[in-house]
Amino acid sequence: MAAPKKGRRPSGPGRPGRALALILTVMVGLAGGMFLFKATTPRLGIDLAGGTTITLEAKAQPGKEDAVNPTNLNTAVAIIDRRVNGLGVSEAEVQTQGDRNIVVTIPKGTNEKQAREQVGTTAQLYFRPVLTWAPSAPAAPTPSGSPTPSASTTPSASTTPSAGSSASPSASATTQGRAVTDALKKAPTPSATAGADASGSPNPTAPTPPADTSDQDNAELQQKFAALDCTPGAAKSGDQKAVPNPAREVPPEQPTVACGTEGDAKYILGPAEVAGTDVDDATAAIDQQRGMWIVQMDFTSAGSKKFQQITSKLSQQAPPQNQFAITLDGQVVSAPSVQTTLSGSAEISGSFDKQSATELANILSYGALPLTFEEANVLTISPTLGGEQLKAGLIAGAIGLLLVVVYLLVYYRALAVVAIASLLAMGAMTYAIMSLLGPAIGLALSLPAVCGAIVAIGITADSFIVYFERIRDEVREGRSVRPAIERAWPRARHTILVSDVVSFLAAVVLFFAAVGSVQGFAFVLGLTTLLDVVVVFLLTKPLTSLLARRKFFSSGHPWSGLDPKRLAGRPPIRGGRRSFVKSADPKEA
């Protein structure tokens, strides 16, 4: 008997039980993660769940009409996009419209209100010294012996002073005016802060200080401060129509009055010493030693000098004049006190939690815009239309899946059980991963993303067909079922990997080249392509090997899908020789 020829040995059956146990563990872990993080359903995008579309119109400052140009609009788009997505809002779209409008689309979600507020606050960011502050309500006439607003209360680093602080809400307009006048006299003037360094030497790079504020200007500022009503829902009519943002149109080199974002305090602020463009970066972090949330700021080289100058002066003042107010769109978002001279970096601490610290860091990082914007139009999209679109998409996906299952059953018969099990595992893992990525990275499922999941059904079906047809080719060559399954795998595996790599590369290119909801389609397509490789290697192949050990499949039962007679296969190979059997094909007879 001649020895068999040497050649490449077919790959062995391996241990399919281990692969099946591994993919089962992965599926159980994903399901457990869904319930652990309470993420049992995917987040929906604006086209499916509804949301808000805000149209912002650029407004040029007097004498700077040329500032409304494509360069500044694109810069504003980039800043607003970072600001919105810094809150974890995915599927948000920020794009220009015409020559002076920006359209911001925000999906309905947990942070929608917060994102809308930050999109609306589009003026430049400034650091102004606090001269004095008082409760938000306007002063009511009372006897002259009424107590003046307390100057000893220091606001928290993360919030403005509450109405329950030691400042008296009943202080009279006369005493408030006296406090403002004293504060203006004692306040660090621009020539003392911006025009000199920490040692008092003149700074030639500092901006030119304005002329001293006249008594008439002081009186007007006192009147505005006394009449200012920052309480939520305050009436806005006549001269008070801009009460929530009274400093919006005030030049940065002039003192102004401002409201706190919480509406529980009002401030009189000195000229701006540092602009938002001087902030290089800001991050929210946990101080491990104190166990509290803080905001860390880094300044540019020019900003470091300016910040060092103002903090060196403020650190020598008594409260509240040792505070600087961080103003955005004319509102005080934070008013921390200064304890020591700071330069290149600073830390803001107070009663922060993760959300408030992250919000302040986002404002500091992305608050400076080159233009002023106003809301020209706000459109709310109802989730009713999105629900109908989602229903139609799911119906289309179900019909496609049903057609694939029918085809597999008709063509592959019992072997289709492997394909159906793999499709179910693929769908379950895709659903679980998309549900977990919602709270993790803010992934929102849009209608194009649903289309990507439907396309993935065809990609997964292609992998099954490639493998099954390789097996059937081996059976046609005369090999029995179990050797055919193992010999077909190496060639099928190569073809499947090449096909999936091409699909994945296409998804990656589309993700980085496209914008908006098309990125959702590309993301889901890439995700399902990777899952196809996992399912084929850990479920399809091992499950097929296990079924081949059953007599129903190994004997080539007519309903197994691997019947040699139905496949017009050649006679089985025995002892290196092939026995002759008359073929049913007249060409081969």
Task: Give an overview of the whole structure.
The chain has 589 residues and is an alpha+beta fold. The longest helix is centred in the last third of the chain and has 33 residues, at 481-513. A hairpin with a 3-residue loop joins strand 3 and strand 4 (101-107). The chain folds into three domains: 16-41 and 383-570, Multidrug efflux transporter AcrB transmembrane domain (Multidrug efflux transporter AcrB transmembrane fold); 51-122 and 369-381, Alpha-Beta Plaits; 123-354, no CATH class. The protein is elongated and about 110 Å long. The strands form five sheets. It has a five-stranded mixed beta barrel with strand order 5-7-6-12-11. It has helices at 16-36, 46-49, 70-85, 112-120, 173-186, 190-193, 215-227, 301-314, 354-366, 383-412, 416-441, 447-476, 481-513, 517-548, 551-554, and strands at residues 43-44, 51-59, 93-97, 101-107, 125-135, 256-260, 265-269, 274-275, 279-287, 292-299, 324-328, 331-334, 345-349, 372-381, 444-445, 573-574, 577-578.
